[in-house]
């Protein structure tokens, strides 16, 4: 899909469903921005992330197809379970799909990967024996 063209209705629905599933799975907020970054892509993505309702519990994925830029910004709470290495791995998978011309497939796969790694570990609660 050439840069600047909007997503089709089917692509938008597929991406929206992936985001909803990821949010339920990881208990964090996901936002995806596809468009032109104003100025430095990283600074622009960080500004977008900071404008979210709950940036600490959010992951923002920004794609600027014109500049061929991908930025992933994570909040402080999210970074407790999602490492930089895991973010880099998701970014590599997304970039590979983008290079093959599959923007939405790359985003869907990347969002799912980020959600899998951002999911807080399950804890077991045990009761101390009554004294």
Automatic annotation (TrEMBL):
InterPro entries: DUF5130. It holds the Pfam family DUF5130. It comes from the Bacteria. This is DUF5130 family protein.
